[in-house]
Amino acid sequence: MAWIYLVIAGVLEIGWAVGLKYTEGFTKLVPSVLTLACIIVSFAFLGMALKTLPVGTAYAIWTGIGAVGTALLGIYLFGDPATTARLACIAIIVSGIVGLKFVA
Hints:
By secondary structure, the protein is an all-alpha fold. It has one domain (about 1-104). The protein has helices at about 1-25, 30-50, 55-80, 85-104. It is flat and about 40 Å long.
């Protein structure tokens, strides 16, 4: 279950990272409340995953899921550049996440 909790926490991290853009500096109520909810629930699931997973592995995977998902949604939603170099770096992060899963 710890790995499932970790993936949920990572997906919620993507939600709050992207949500920050929509809060416009926490001046919009609904996006701000949803973003804060994602933060709280993301940390709760990360905490549950840390009951059995090594902290370094779990934290690296959590931030990796968040970084990859946020970067990809930035490209899709906000028109961030999708250069070859940027996509290659995202692929490196994904390979690190997969590698940590296999050695944990």
